[in-house]
Design brief:
Pfam families: NAD_binding_8 (PF13450). By secondary structure, this protein is of the alpha+beta class. The protein is 32% helix and 25% strand. The protein binds flavin-adenine dinucleotide (FAD).
């Protein structure tokens, strides 16, 4: 997977090789999507070349020292892969209810900073970040700089440990029998191929579960890891993407924020303004649903163009249910943001030049990490797990780790373990 964790793994492995003065190992990234990014990816369309909408994570927070050091390196590569995301770009939207009416009030987090709230500390340390030029830039730049070979639109359906040769054989295609190569180390940079969710989306047994069953000698550490991964539930989110031009684009572009966190609405969780095409007069809008709303609307499917439907073979979903989802999210936007933000016609589907296009993130946010860093390494099988389902919930400083931060941190740890497995960097410490 070429999400945040897999991309970090590739980037860090090549950095470690350079630092150790050894040739970089050949890294191959298999990704079922069309491009790097995973849940931190950017939606594009051929229709509008300047259109780019961050429809997964729009930004992230980081406090772990190793992750901050990585982010510093990523700001120094050319072109930079990340930049600080200022809290002034985030607003909170809350309902104030009187007996007869509900009013939605938007407050800026930068205003709170001025009052000396705890938000100020985050702002000063500059610890929120965004990918450059879009969220996907974070993964794109790491993959490019790493020199890894990429195989997009490729679903790894079979992973099999060959004990005699001490290699992992990978297979793709519909049956998993199409050879994808043999590798000294396997980094599973997604929970999906090890989770029961795989069976409902792609059918058949999860590839890593199957691999454990095929081992001639059972590996208790792997079995325990698989049990823990499968026990973790992840909350879904529905994303709706639209784009506006003309007066509607100007109205959205004029707002002094990028992300609105909505508190207290049953349907709408977040509104994200995308200004990547602003110079060409195009503004994107991404609406994220609440988890509860996404859970109750599973029949809407994964969305046209999603890797799950396109190549994974997941059910197409019901178009009436998708219409209903689109309608509900747009009605919520009108209720929560209009007229305080823009005029009603500037938030309507009729004035959108692109979309609304729905995408279901079936496992947007894991409820808690499944594996500690040490449980994510199976040295006897030269296997490492990486992703936001690996690591600690809280940093050494006592701060809650963000999801992207966990993915970054686990990619760093996995690369450290892999370099030891490849035996060119003894006693490596992060
Ligand atoms: C709507 C939404 C909002 C979010 N908001 C935030 C936020 O504000 N802050 C924050 O910190 N985090 C947020 N997150 C979470 C964040 O996006 C994720 O934690 C992070 O991107 C996870 O990265 P990852 O590499 O662990 O996994 P993923 O991004 O899931 O990457 C795994 C990759 O592996 C690929 N893959 C899986 N199986 C296979 C296979 N068999 N063959 C080939 N490829 C495969 C997948 O296609 C995917 O690209 C949000 C997520 C969503 C969806």
């Amino acid at each position: 997977g070429a999400g945040v964790a897999g991309s970090t793994f590739a980037f860090e492995l090549s950095r470690r090789a350079r630092a150790a003065g050894v040739p970089a190992p050949r890294v191959e990234l298999f990704e079922m999507g069309r491009a790097p990014g995973g849940r931190a990816s950017t939606r594009r369309t051929r229709e509008f070349p300047t259109f780019a909408a961050d429809h997964g994570a729009p930004f992230f927070h980081a406090s772990d020292l190793n992750v901050l050091a990585l982010l510093q390196r990523l700001q120094q590569i050319s072109p930079p892969a990340v930049e600080p995301f200022h809290r002034a770009e985030i607003v909170d939207v809350r309902a104030t209810r009187s007996t007869a009416t509900t009013t939605w009030v938007t407050t800026s987090r930068s205003a709170k900073c001025k009052e000396g709230s705890s938000a100020q500390a985050n702002d000063v340390s500059g610890s929120s970040f965004v990918g450059r030029p879009t969220m996907a830039g974070l993964c794109e730049q790491m993959v490019k700089s790493s020199g890894a070979t990429t195989r997009f639109q490729t679903v790894v359906r079979r992973v099999e440990w060959q004990a005699n040769e001490c290699v992992w054989e990978l297979g793709g295609g519909d049956s998993g029998l199409e050879p994808l190569g043999a590798f000294d180390v396997l980094c599973v940079a997604s929970a999906t191929p090890a989770h029961t969710r795989w069976s409902s989306v792609f059918g058949g047994e999860p590839p890593v579960v199957r691999a454990a069953e095929l081992l001639k000698t059972p590996n208790p550490a792997l079995e325990e890891a698989l049990r823990k991964i499968s026990a973790v539930k992840a909350k879904p989110v529905l994303a709706l993407v639209l784009a506006f031009d003309g007066a509607a684009a100007s109205a959205w572009n004029a707002l002094p924020w990028t992300v609105a966190e909505v508190h207290g609405d049953d349907v709408l969780g977040r509104v994200i303004i995308g200004r990547h095409g602003a110079a060409q007069g195009l503004i994107s809008l991404v609406l994220h649903s609440t988890h509860e709303f996404a859970m109750h609307h599973a029949s809407a499917g994964y969305g046209r163009g999603s890797a799950a439907e396109r190549i994974g073979g997941a059910s197409k979903g019901c178009s009436d249910a998708r219409e209903q989802v689109e309608q509900s999210l747009l009605e919520s936007l009108a209720r929560v943001g209009v007229p305080a933000w823009v005029r009603a016609e500037h938030a309507s589907r009729d004035s959108a030049v692109y979309g609304p296009l729905m995408h279901r993130w079936g496992g947007a946010l894991p409820e808690r990490p499944a594996l500690t860093h040490s449980a994510a390494v199976i040295p006897a099988l030269k296997l490492v797990f990486a992703g936001d389902y690996v690591g600690e919930e809280v940093s050494a400083k006592g701060e809650e780790l963000s999801f992207v931060e966990r993915a970054l941190s686990s990619g760093l740890h996995a690369a450290g373990s892999a370099s030891e497995m490849l035996r060119w960097q003894k006693n490596s410490a992060l």
